[in-house]
């Protein structure tokens, strides 16, 4: 099973600041990585797929990068609606594992 | 508009069984692989099971293998998860999600399964 490790667990930031979230895979997964955003009481929403492609309707302030085992989600300037939990997910294996999540909270 | 609507959740005793359903609409269901993903209260997302578009290729997380069975009826645009030998640690919101080239691009609202005596 491919294990995804996200860091940090929590990120405390102010609106307008930038955020950098990391996801590391236990083995190489090429670029088959997605990022999701989840707000309380809601289903997750796909933000980024294939490591760097924004899903439909996702604002340009969200960007993804990386390949192999190390990946990054960057939010260039946090807006109020961006405070949420973010998960990475690998698509290299049929067993579609998720990372444990990074909570982006208001400082 | 793509819609996924789960149903069948509820309260069940340890050792009991439950069948979840997911009704799909707004897309050609038979063309897409599907996943079940769950989330225990206050915890992260856990992938549970995958089924290929034709129902042939099926995979499970180790935590549910041998106890859960995923299936689909493409004629009814429906996905199912038969859960048996349920444990307290299976308590979670269960989501069905469309697997689009390895990523879950649409999700249902989820159905809560509570395993408790």
Share of β-strand residues of chain B: over 45%
Radius of gyration of chain B: 13 Å
Strand tally of chain A is: 10
> What would you call the structural class of chain A?
mainly beta
Number of helices of chain A: 0
Number of strands of chain B: 11
Secondary-structure element series of chain A:
EEEEEEEEEE
Low-confidence blocks of residues of chain A: none
Low-confidence stretches of chain B: none
Average pLDDT confidence of chain B is 97
- What portion of residues of chain B is helical? under 10%
**Distance from first to last alpha carbon of chain B:** 40 Å
Give the assembly state of these chains: heterodimer
Instruction: Give the strand order of the largest sheet of chain A, numbering strands 1, 2, ... along the chain.
Output: 2-10-9-4-5-6
Provide a descriptive summary of the structure in words:
The complex is a heterodimer of chains A (107) and B (117). Chain A has 107 residues and is mainly β. Chain A has no helices and 10 strands. In chain A, strand 5 (45-49) and strand 6 (53-54) form a beta hairpin. The radius of gyration of chain A is 13 Å and the shape is globular. The mean pLDDT of chain A is 96. Chain B is an all-beta fold and 117 residues long. Chain B contains no helices and 11 strands. In chain B, strands 2, 4, 5, 6, 9, 10 and 11 form a 7-stranded mixed β-sheet that branches. In chain B, strand 5 (45-51) and strand 6 (58-60) form a beta hairpin. The termini of chain B are far apart. The A-B interface holds A 1, 32, 34, 36, 38, 43-46, 49-50, 55, 85, 87, 89, 91-92, 94-101 and B 35, 37, 44-47, 50, 57, 59, 61-62, 95, 99, 101-105, 107-110.
Protein topology:
The complex is a heterodimer of chains A (107) and B (117).
Chain A: E1 4-7, E2 10-13, E3 19-25, E4 33-38, E5 45-49, E6 53-54, E7 62-67, E8 70-75, E9 85-90, E10 102-106
Parallel strand pairs in A: 2-10
Antiparallel strand pairs in A: 1-3, 3-8, 4-5, 4-9, 5-6, 7-8, 9-10
Chain B: E1 3-7, E2 10-12, E3 18-25, E4 33-39, E5 45-51, E6 58-60, E7 68-73, E8 78-83, E9 92-100, E10 103-107, E11 111-115
Parallel strand pairs in B: 2-11
Antiparallel strand pairs in B: 1-3, 3-8, 4-5, 4-9, 5-6, 7-8, 9-10, 9-11
